[in-house]
């Protein structure tokens, strides 16, 4: 230990700490991010930031989290919202997250059978189809906006 500390120009206790961490299987390359209270709600916070296009305030997000049973402080929420907004501004650095569906927030489509399409050998195959909205209600069309 002492010779390694002399070569690395550091204290022998530092070398001992790194060797013990390596032998225990812990990473020794840098600091490890500890778990936070907001980790469980991080997907929801990122969804709110994305839906508001980055305009949600941390105070509003904290109120919504408290209504969902969150027990952390407002400062922790502010930090999590600021990090989510930063990831939104620089998306290349963010890790992909799983998609969380919520009832009533997403459109539902049914895939219909399309016309038969000739395959490479000329034999007609069933078409892939096209999506159509599920249900009978349709959105109103504003002809003034279309005719322009």
Describe the structure.
This protein is mainly α and 148 residues long. The protein has a domain at 109-116 and 124-147. Helix content is 41%, strand content 7%. The chain has 6 helices and 4 strands. It has helices at residues 2-8, 12-24, 42-51, 58-67, 74-89, 143-147; strands at 109-111, 117-118, 124-125, 131-133. The strands form 2 sheets. The chain has a two-stranded antiparallel sheet with strand order 1-4. α4 crosses α5 (74-89). The longest helix is centred in the middle third of the chain and has 16 residues, at 74-89. The chain is flat and about 80 Å long. It comes from Streptomyces litchfieldiae. This is Transposase. Residues 126-148 are annotated as: Disordered.
Q: Could you give the topology of this structure?
A:
Blueprint: H1 2-8, H2 12-24, H3 42-51, H4 58-67, H5 74-89, E1 109-111, E2 117-118, E3 124-125, E4 131-133, H6 143-147
Antiparallel strand pairs: 1-4, 2-3
Helix pairs in contact: 1-2, 3-5, 4-5
């Amino acid at each position: 230990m002492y010779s390694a500390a002399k070569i690395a120009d550091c204290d022998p206790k530092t070398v001992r700490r790194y060797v013990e961490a390596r032998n225990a299987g812990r990473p020794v390359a840098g600091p490890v991010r500890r778990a936070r209270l907001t980790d469980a709600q991080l997907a929801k916070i990122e969804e709110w930031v994305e839906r508001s296009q980055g305009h949600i305030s941390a105070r509003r997000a904290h109120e919504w989290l408290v209504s969902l049973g969150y027990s952390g402080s407002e400062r922790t929420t502010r930090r999590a919202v600021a990090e989510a907004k930063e990831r939104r501004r620089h998306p290349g650095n963010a890790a992909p997250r799983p998609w969380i569906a919520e009832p009533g927030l997403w459109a539902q489509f049914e895939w219909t059978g399309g016309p038969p399409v000739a395959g490479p050998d000329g034999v007609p195959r069933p078409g892939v189809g096209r999506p159509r909205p599920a249900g009978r209600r349709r959105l109103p069309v504003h002809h003034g906006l279309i005719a322009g």
